[in-house]
TrEMBL record:
Residues 1-218 form the FAD-binding PCMH-type domain. It comes from the Bacteria. InterPro entries: CO_DH_flav_C, CO_DH_flav_C_dom_sf, Diverse_Substr_Oxidored, FAD-bd_PCMH, FAD-bd_PCMH-like_sf, FAD-bd_PCMH_sub1, FAD-bd_PCMH_sub2, Mopterin_DH_FAD-bd. The lineage of its organism: Bacteria, Pseudomonadati, Pseudomonadota, Alphaproteobacteria, Hyphomicrobiales. Coiled coil: none annotated. Keywords: FAD, Flavoprotein. This is Xanthine dehydrogenase family protein subunit M. SUPFAM superfamilies: CO dehydrogenase flavoprotein C-terminal domain-like, FAD-binding/transporter-associated domain-like.
Length: 325
């Protein structure tokens, strides 16, 4: 591992008093990347004691500190009661040991688990811009079918981020000049385009302080994850859904997909088609097929174009009381 300087952030307000570097929270992803020489920061800024480890109700929002562990977030009574989709996503995401260390902010900013990204002997534009993408013609079963580019077809690995996308979460940040930012979680991550090495829209040295959830989320919620083994595996395809049923009509419908894109993918086309309608299985499938109209497989992952709609349709049938699979 390359030598680095270590500094500690006392409070978010002191961000301008430490050097710009990589923030160290739980370290469950960053330390691995440093060991592989994929990440080689000159400075690590420890943010674990900066007072960002609380869950608070604030008027019309619930504020989750960026250093709240995945375990504490998943098990918090308020989250389990009002945001069960988030709790379910977190519990499906990793081992207990990892959840104890992993943090809310770090989970959002974790990097792809693409095997070509981790293998420094292979071409990867995300790791080394301009080197190519071996996943395009390689083993790409886990890779993106939506929003990808000729430069990168990696997917974002977070389960938590998919649930937060369905809940309409907002990321609260602090910049080095002391100003604050508010970024919808659906806009935090970038699509690859011609710069797949840029994962997110944060400025250099910009710190995630908290995540805001709406205090009155849709009441019907579900998270489902399709994976190769029954525990502690990354999603082949996942989905988070939140909606209300009012007089038999679907309202406030939000559908987010994981394992299909460079970021949690909000199925806005399907949402628009279903909003205000009465539940109907054929309508569900029509809406999801419309969402998948631009999906592009790369051989090994072609099946995702069929699997993703079926997962969402099954979840919608269950949530709206239609039953069946």
């Amino acid at each position: 591992m390359k030598p680095f300087d270590y500094q500690r952030l006392e409070t978010p307000e002191h961000l301008g008093h430490v050097e710009a570097g990589r923030f160290l929270g739980g370290g469950t992803n960053l330390i691995d990347l440093m060991k592989h020489q994929i990440e080689t920061p000159d400075v690590l800024v420890d943010v674990t004691r900066a007072g960002m480890d609380r869950i608070e109700e604030r008027g019309d929002a619930v504020l989750i500190g960026s250093q709240v562990s995945n375990t504490d977030l998943a098990s918090h009574p308020l989250i389990r009661r009002d945001y069960p989709v988030l709790s379910s996503a977190l519990l499906s995401g990793a081992t207990q040991q990892l959840r104890n260390k992993a943090t809310t902010g770090g989970n959002l900013l974790q990097r792809t688990r693409c095997q070509y990204f981790y293998d420094t002997a292979r071409a990867c534009n995300k790791r080394e811009p301009g080197s190519g993408c071996d996943a395009l013609d390689g083993l790409n079963r886990f890779h993106a079918i939506l929003g990808a580019s000729e430069n990168c077809i990696a997917v974002h690995p977070s389960d938590m981020a998919v649930a937060m996308a369905a809940l309409g979460a907002v990321v609260v940040t602090r910049k080095r000049d002391g100003t604050e930012g508010r970024i919808p979680v659906t806009e935090l991550h970038r699509l690859p385009g011609d710069r797949p090495d840029l994962d997110h829209v944060l400025d250099e040295g910009e710190l995630i302080v908290a995540v805001e959830l709406p205090a009155s989320p849709p009441r019907l919620q579900s998270y489902r994850k399709v994976r190769d083994r029954s525990s502690y595996a990354f999603a082949v395809v996942s989905a988070a859904i939140a909606l209300d049923l009012e007089d038999g009509h679907m309202r406030n419908l939000r559908i987010a997909l994981g394992g299909v894109a460079h970021k949690p993918w909000r199925a806005t086309k399907a949402e628009a088609m279903l909003e205000g309608k009465m539940p109907e299985a054929a309508l569900f499938m029509e809406a999801l097929e419309q969402e998948m109209a631009d999906a592009e497989g790369h051989g090994h992952n072609d099946f995702k174009k069929i699997l993703a709609p079926r997962v969402v349709v099954a979840m919608l049938r269950e949530l709206t009381g239609l039953g069946g699979n």
